[in-house]
Amino acid sequence: MSRLGLLALQLLVAIVAIALWQFFATVPVFGRILLPPFFFSNPVDVFSQVVKWFSTGAIWKHLAITLWESILAFAIGSLGGVLVGFWFARKPLVAAVFDPYVKMANALPRVVLAPIFTLWLGLGIWSKVALGVTLVFFIVFFNVYQGVKEVSTVVRDNARMLGMSERQLMRHVYWPSALSWMFSSLHTSVGFAVVGAVVGEYLGSAAGLGYLIQQAEGVFDVAGVFAGMFVLSAFVILIDICVTLVERRLLVWRPDAADGR
Amino acid sequence: MTQSTAAAVSLERTTVAFRLAGGRTYTAVETADLAVADGEFVAIVGPTGCGKSTLLNVAAGLLKPAAGSVRIFGQPLAGLNREAGYLFQADALFPWKTALENVAIGLVVAGTPAAEAAVKAQQWLTSVGLGAFGNRYPHMLSGGQRKRVGLAQVLIRNPRIILMDEPFGPLDAQTRQIMGNLLLDLWNADRKAVLFVTHDLEEAIALADRVVIMSAGPASRIIGDWRVTLPRPRDIFEVRMKHEFHELHREIWQTLKAEVEKTYKQAEAV
Fold it and tell me: I need a labelling partner for A66 at 20 to 30 A (CA). Which of A17, A122, B148, B250 fits?
């Protein structure tokens, strides 16, 4: 199937779905409207809401806040995950001592932490960043830990026979291996940074995409809820495209990343 | 024995044992005596699992023997063998470095300026026939090309001893022969001491000055030592046609065959 043909089919799915939604939301079938506007709104209203947000520029502030929270959550969570992952992997005793606590903390559904973070850090961006950090940290941490642990013994022996000191081993062997594992989970960790930000906003905030959706819901503005969801999806897809570009740049040496070009 | 005439590698009554789960010990190699003179090419041949690689790891200092001593140019070996370069059987290149960076790394970690190391690495890549492949990552190279990079990676450091663990094992027959000739050409330039492990007797005779046979494991021993007097420089393709090659092959195979059969019988009994 050619690229163009595939694109046409993909568009067709969207058109049919939106057309059906519009039809059942406005045209009575056997004297009843199957998708009552109060619960389902309709595509035209949702679209005009999106257009209104962008034309008045009201949306930009919320997008910027959510983006900023996601970036901070990702950066802080990754940094912490890399440092602790490295430390644990090189010091088995430390890893063994903390193992049950790491497992316990990771098993906790992070949403329950949101009220505590709000209590501690207020309604501003930092309570959302904190929530995102708790999600990102564990993904990066586990990957870096694996990455350092799973350096093949042959590669390590070869490095030592080539005269590498312990520090040079870190720099030329463990570090690249850990980074490659971290980057392979980049999509997941960036996605979780956004989830942390939006869920945090939804549970209590004064700005952001999550706040926008929560506000619309509060006044039964279903068109607003759907519009917020669409903007959010588009936002996540854009971020994902950026991540893919970064990944291709950084992992040129990896077989699967290079074949994807 | 004086310093100057000391063997490059000398294993004296070396026993290697591993501790197994349950407190038992497994003796891989028992009281092996082996000396490799400076500039000598020695091949170790033995059936699968006879501890050939174990012996090589001992010479490299990656493994400590349970008993016996290891001397490198007369000095007792403590820790890693700094005089040796080691070409591993498995892929040991750094996948996140290009071919050029892989070759240069041995100089870089020894403190050579990056630019100078890159120039030397490019020369080595050229001499193993990969001059145009410097910016490829290992996964973009074929198995044979990766071995060439590995060879350059080891030789660029100019080690006085070269240890090789079935380096051409995973390659196809034609590539093996080409790599064998490449190795002989490079070695001929400045004859280093080589300890070459293989399970292929023909390869061993074609390459080496001496062929050492090990018995079937466990607790395998060195059971034979033949001198190969075929003239150098050799060509691997042609040397196999020689009468002397066949005579030697037949003679060594008599000994090796019994050991190989022993290994198979043990495998069947399990």
Answer: A17
